[in-house]
Amino acid sequence: MKTKKLLNNTTTTTNSGEQVKQPSISIVSDRYNEELSEKIEKFTKLFQNPRDIDVGKTAHEIVKETSLYRLLHYKPIFKNPLKTPLLVVYALINKSYILDLQDDKSWVKNLVSQGFDVYLIDWKPPTSNDKYVNFDDYVNDFIDDCVDIIRNKNSIEKITLHGYCMGATMSAMYTTFYQHKIRNLVTLAPVIDSSKDTTVIGNFGRNMAANKIMDSLGNMPPQLLNTCFSALKPFKQGMNKYYALLEHIDDTKFVENFLRVEKWLYDIPPITGEVFKQWINDIYKNNLLIKNELKLGNKIVDLSKIHIPLLNIVAEEDHLVSPQCSTALNNLVSSTDNRLMKFPTGHVGLIASSYSQLNVLPRVGKWLFSRSD
Amino acid sequence: MNDIMSYEENYAIPFEELLKKYQEFWKKFTNIPKYSPLSLMEETTSIGKNIQDLLIVSSKMQYFTVNYISQITKTYSEALDKLPSNAIKSDIKSEQDLKKYRNILIGTLEDSFTNLFQSKEFGILVSDIMSTYSDYNKLLKNITNTFLVSLNLTNKDDIDSILKEMQELKRQVRDIRKTMDIIISEDKKIVK
């Protein structure tokens, strides 16, 4: 077997003046070099000729569509699904198809297969004309509209409200006002107590002059949002993922999953100016939610008014929303049926991974099953 | 003129003070009498003032951007300093060693940069950059608005005020609709 020396021994001087020897690759086989070259070629071709990748394939119909949202109803696979329908409220960041990324990692498909009657609010990108749409509109108008449509369609008084991330925060806000329409509240990684948030996003949010920025830009543009999110794990999830892709370039399943996640990561809609201002000022800077001082319209959000069953699901390795920021919800509500589930995974892994399918969803389904008859 | 200083004298002054001196100097040319025919030139002088502010904001953007870049390069150097000595001393003899070294390098860079991004000072710096960019944007908008007004064309501020009123009206309609729904459902209960 032939060997080659790829790098010579070199030394560098660090800031502290220390002479440090750089490692050298002394023995590498020709076979490794050939394999690496082939992989690099495939890697380059993948990005030069990207193919269209399908997402959100679970069968559904559009129940209602407006300029800012669509209400989707996933086709039940059982003739008689569970009596209490479930409305999933996604966040206003990125797109909702992360909850239905692919067949074997679809949150909504799994819930449908467990017998639930699942609906989802798919938020549409706002335009510059929507810059004055605020949380009051999202919670008291759009979510309420969807809840009423489902109640009327299913001839039922109460539904299960199930939110993810910012959608979970909005779901909690909604429940304080419209508890008579909600049977159960399920929250995934909600943003509740920002004083306990130690993430980079929390740091940027607490120091941001949101009013000034939004008055100038109108809506929060995708490019600026991407800049903020790029600062989260820039090496482990930024650079390293491309190394991992290179290593697994021959694994079709891996590549397709990678492309789906990659598509979602950069499919960022803008956020309306008023929503962004309130999100940063009221939630991150002033932490009004836990102080019972957050206002939607002329109504105060008082989480202690929630007394319906609550299931709060938190990711222990969440780098977008600190677990402690989310678990605060369990201490604020008045529910006697009040459960916290923690899982050793990340923010997106909580809903779109094999781990989620095998560990999170069965337990969520079990909790919901007994409260959905 | 007493205001002219040498390059060395200028360099020694803090940035904010320098901007203040610059503004005070040019203020003499942009202040116009209130009660005179010159007051009709307000549009022209406001464009002049906006352009002057644009130069100041551009300087600020440059200052904060340079600061940002220096923080990033400093953190990168510090991260390389922190690389465990055993990762550097041993030669890479196999693919596994290469992978191990790569993981150590990425982990070290990740830790250093996460510490930087989580620091309050960096959070404030990012906010300063975004604020300055917003100021720049706003000044460009002000200049464009002035031209649009003089051409008797609708500007963004006019459109924004209409959009704001429309959204308020939508909310009022929503509230009226909800109140009517409650009244109708209560009426139905009474009829039953």
Can you describe this structure?
The complex is a heterodimer of chains A (373) and B (192). Chain A is built from 12 helices and 14 strands. With 373 residues, chain A is an alpha/beta fold. In chain A, the strands form 4 sheets. Chain A has an 8-stranded mixed beta sheet with strand order 5-6-8-7-9-10-13-14, sandwiched between helices. Chain A has a two-stranded antiparallel sheet with strand order 1-4. Chain B is mainly α and 192 residues long. Chain B is 83% helix and 0% strand. Chain B has 7 helices and no strands. Chain B has helices at 7-12, 15-30, 42-82, 85-89, 95-118, 120-150, 156-191. The interface between A and B is large, with 47 and 47 residues.
SSE inventory with pairings:
The complex is a heterodimer of chains A (373) and B (192).
Chain A: E1 3-4, E2 10-13, E3 19-22, E4 28-29, H1 30-48, E5 60-65, E6 69-74, E7 86-89, H2 107-113, E8 118-123, H3 135-154, E9 159-164, H4 166-177, E10 182-188, H5 200-206, H6 210-217, H7 222-230, H8 234-247, H9 252-265, H10 273-285, E11 295-296, E12 299-300, E13 310-315, H11 323-332, E14 338-343, H12 354-369
Parallel strand pairs in A: 7-8, 7-9, 9-10, 10-13, 13-14
Antiparallel strand pairs in A: 1-4, 2-3, 5-6, 6-8, 11-12
Helix pairs in contact in A: 3-4, 6-10
Chain B: H1 7-12, H2 15-30, H3 42-82, H4 85-89, H5 95-118, H6 120-150, H7 156-191
Helix pairs in contact in B: 2-3, 3-5, 3-6
